[in-house]
Amino acid sequence: MTTPADKFIKYSAFWSSNCLYGKCRLKGFCLDVAIVGKSGFCREMLDSAAVMNIFDRDQNISYHIFATDGPIDSDSVRLFPEGLSPELTAPGDRCAVHNEPLKGSEALSSADFVAAEDKKTASAILKSLPEANVSSPDGFAGERRLTSLAKKLNFRYAKLYGKARLSPLSINREWNKLDEFTKLSNLSAAAYNDQRLAMLSEMGISKDVVSDFELERLAELEHMRWVRFHLINGWRPGVPENGKRKDPTKRIHSDLLPYSELSEESREKDAQSVRLMLSI
After folding, report:
1. 72: left (phi over 0), alpha (psi -120 to 50) or beta
2. Domains in the chain, please, with CATH?
């Protein structure tokens, strides 16, 4: 049985394989992306897009939702929960629901990229819009590579922050110690690293020679990804009563803040995460 976590991984791999950074950069970090499919698919694909398509602090990506199984309430499809600080969620990105027919839709015809639920939907779109840039996760299989990368990432963290000496044979053992949320968090980080590498390549920068300026920029984007991932999974800003950074039971974390409000220690953790992922 396919779980929501399985779909999140699959859709994250889809976005990393269809990296929109180059197109987004050429358009001044303003982009229109259409998501077409059943309402459940649209919600799940939007969640993964919000976490994966992070290219610039001031980007403006508009997601246009077209549900093929009937009209949906715009309040039921949101990028992020209500009541959160705009500075926390990066206010430039937005979501709009379109209940009009696909044929003749200006929002669909003007989209820079279209994510279709399956090949049949993609073919129908291309029939009416031959020039559309359409792709579908239908039959997509990039999850195995992501899982391998995520295990390596977790192993590096375990070696960096753990007390025990680890051998390469410990990779699966350390992975199996994780709860499902932490595994998913590592998978999300691994998927986004593909976006990061694509960004560096587009800018002509080697991952082995990243300046302090670029590292700071990448650290801020990584923090945005981390924040969005936690918000989508039900976490909220807050300081645990025990004074620790996080409370997994209540799903609150003291670092769910805009990057500009982080302590130097927390910023360095983001930078360390980027260094670690670039080294894999």
Report:
1. beta
2. 18-135 (3.40.50), 143-278 (no CATH)
**Strand 134-135 relative to strand 113-116, pairing:** parallel
The rounded distance, in Å, linking the Cα atoms of 32 and 105 is: 13
- Distance, in Å, from the CA atom of 44 to the CA atom of 95, rounded to the nearest integer, reads 13
45 in Cβ contact with 10 (< 8 Å): no
Tokens at 23, concatenated:
């197109």
Distance, CA of 43 to CA of 56 (rounded, Å): 23
CA distance 65 to 107: 10
3-class DSSP string for the chain: CCCHHHHHHHHHHHHHHCCCHHHHHHCCCEEEEEEEECHHHHHHHHHHHHHHCCCCCCCEEEEEEEECCCCCCHHHCCCCCCCCCHHHHCCCCEEEECCCCCCCCHHHHCCCEEEECCHHHHHHHHHHCCCCCEECCCCCCCHHHHHHHHHHHHHHHHHHHCCCCCCHHHHHHHHHCCCHHHHHHHHHHHHHHHHHHHHHHHCCCCCCCCCHHHHHHHHHHHHHHHHHHHHHCCCEECCCCCCCCEECCCCEECCCCCHHHCCHHHHHHHHHHHHHHHCC
d(CA 88, CA 111): 26
Please give the pLDDT value at position 164: 57
- For the stretch 212-269, pLDDT in tens is 999 999 999 999 999 999 999 999 999 988 778 899 999 999 999 999 999 999 999 9
Sign of the Cα torsion 19, 269, 178, 156 reads positive
Claim: this prediction has a pTM higher than 0.85: yes
